Amino acid sequence: MEARRWNWHLWAGFLICLVGFASYPVIFVKFPVTRDIPWVNFLLLAAGLAILFYGLRLAFGDSAPYRGKITGPILGLLSALIVGLFCYFIFFMAHQLPVSAAAPHVGQQAPEFELADINNQPVSLAKLLSTPLPGTGAPPKGVLLVFYRGYW
Amino acid sequence: MRGIEKSLTDLEKLGVRPVAISVDLPQESRELCHKAGYTFSFLSDPNAEVIRRYDLLHPGAGHNGHDIARPAEFLVDSSRLIQWVNLTDDFRVRARPEQMLAAAANLP
Fold first, then answer.
1. Looking at residues A70-93, what average pLDDT do you find?
2. Could you give the C-alpha distances from A145 to A59, A67, B37, B67, in angstroms and in order?
């Protein structure tokens, strides 16, 4: 019997899935174009699954000259898990936000506050609105409050 | 934040002062500003009092189950009236600089 050939498609597909998953938090989340709709990662994951599926067909094909009847299904399952986890994060977890029904809306007064800046100096909303802007020398027409999750 | 830093001159030209608020401690924000080169104001609300006042608390969503702020942007005019609000429904997706500049251009 002829020795069966190494089925690299299975490993390549799995690796591409892995890269398609891990590259989102490491690289693509940094750019709005690839973050808001993670198309690069979806493309990588789809390519990975396609190559892996091709590898599985080779392993279980009629004459089956390729290896991979055991590693194939294992890598396939792992890749499916990776893709599932990614979809869970993008389509479900990222949407788990509080309703914030009582957040101030347009036309309301913004609640006053006083918080410490990076030099531990107290800064109030009134002060932010009255301190002249650099460059113009005039107080600002508005203050843009950007609440963010923080980096802990 | 990088988008805001990049648009800082344009925002200021329109008379708008951006301010970032989170539960991070002042020294943590100072390190962030230093590392990332942010030059606008960062304020620290470690007990989430103001975040609560604005109903933006995301309980237990931070590291080790810390309460943090959900992302949100408000444009407040000189008489302290809110002129524009952006509450995202996906914490990956924040207001884009173009949206903020458009809102700033509409200030009275």
1. 96
2. 57, 59, 19, 19
